[in-house]
Amino acid sequence: MQITIRVPKTKTDRWVVSNHYRRRSAGTLLKLIERQVVKAVAKEKTCVVVNYGKDTNETLESKDSNYLIYTTVCFLEDYLSYEIIKRYENLYSLNFK
Description:
alpha+beta, 5 strands
């Protein structure tokens, strides 16, 4: 399974996840991604793709939700507040399987 995140091009655009969900901020988007990754990993290997317009970052396919969420936070760190980054680092960085 592939979860795709499209980064907004302007401040008025919204974040889009797999063409279904739209969010105004990266913080609320991250909570949605966290839930989707946990659900998807239970069924099959999953990867997260972040589309910046011209550039794309993609995680390896994995069944480790901690790896997928932490890597997604790393991809989106320019759009997240320091507090959110630190919280997710503490939750997911040392828990790789």
